[in-house]
C-alpha cells in the first residue's frame, strides 16, 4: 500500500464542492498581526526601502548587505494599495559576504530554493503577485538583529527560524511553528 496512491484515489472520489474547498484551503495560512508587535518598529535603524515585482528579470540590485521582504500584493487600478508580508530575510551579516543581489537570485532560480519547501510553496502559490522589497543596512549594524526585529513586527507565515526565542515559543504554543 502506498500513501500517495491512496490519497490520489480519495481525491478522485471527492465531490466538486470538496475539490473547491481543497482549492481554497491550499491558499489558507495561519498569521499573526498583533498591534503590540508593531511597537518594535522603534528599534529599527533608518532604512530606505525599494520595492519591485518579484520576477525573473534581473534588477539593478546592490552588491551590499541588507534585509529584504517578500510580500503578496494585488496590483489593480480598481483596488487600493495593499500588501501582506509573507517572508523576511537577511543578506549577509557582520563577517559574511552574502548580498542583496545574491539573495534575490536565490528566489528567482529554482536551485536557490528547491531544498526549502516552505519558500518553494510560497513562490509557487503566489507567483505573479509577489513583491520583493529590500533595504541596505547601515554600517556596523547587524542584519540578523534587524531581521529578528522585522520578524517580530510582521510574524511572516513563511519564516520558521528567524524569530526571537520568546516569540518562537509563543508561536509554537499557537501551533504556528
Describe the protein's architecture and organization.
The structure is a single chain. This protein has 177 residues and is an alpha+beta fold. Helices cover 36% and strands 15% of the residues. The protein is built from seven helices and four strands; from the N terminus they run αααβββααβαα. It has helices at 3-12, 16-26, 35-38, 100-108, 117-125, 143-154, 165-173; strands at 49-53, 66-72, 84-91, 130-136. A four-stranded antiparallel sheet has the order 1-4-2-3, with helices on both faces. It is globular and about 60 Å long. The protein starts with a helix and ends with a helix.
- Reading the helices and strands in chain order gives HHHEEEHHEHH
Into which percent range does the helicity of residues fall?
25-40%
Please tally the β strands and state the result. 4
Rg (CA only): 18 Å
Query: What structural class is derived from the secondary structure elements?
Result: alpha+beta
Mean pLDDT: 91
Amino acid at each position: 500500500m502506498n500513501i500517495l496512491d491512496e490519497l490520489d484515489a480519495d481525491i478522485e472520489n471527492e465531490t466538486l464542492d470538496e475539490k473547491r474547498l481543497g482549492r481554497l484551503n491550499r491558499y489558507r495560512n495561519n498569521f499573526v498581526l498583533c498591534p503590540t508587535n508593531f511597537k518594535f518598529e522603534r528599534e529599527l535603524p533608518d532604512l530606505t526601502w525599494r520595492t519591485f515585482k518579484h520576477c525573473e528579470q534581473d534588477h539593478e540590485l546592490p552588491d551590499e548587505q541588507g534585509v529584504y521582504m517578500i510580500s503578496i500584493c494585488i496590483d489593480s487600478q480598481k483596488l487600493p494599495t495593499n500588501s501582506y508580508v509573507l517572508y523576511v530575510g537577511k543578506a549577509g551579516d557582520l563577517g559574511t559576504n552574502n548580498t542583496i543581489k545574491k539573495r534575490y537570485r536565490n528566489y528567482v532560480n529554482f536551485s536557490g530554493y528547491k531544498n526549502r519547501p516552505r519558500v518553494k510553496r510560497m513562490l509557487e502559490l503566489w507567483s505573479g503577485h509577489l513583491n520583493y522589497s529590500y533595504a541596505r543596512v547601515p554600517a556596523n549594524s547587524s542584519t540578523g538583529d534587524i531581521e529578528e526585529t522585522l520578524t517580530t513586527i510582521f510574524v511572516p507565515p513563511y519564516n520558521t527560524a528567524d524569530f526571537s526565542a520568546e516569540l518562537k515559543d509563543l508561536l509554537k504554543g499557537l501551533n504556528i511553528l
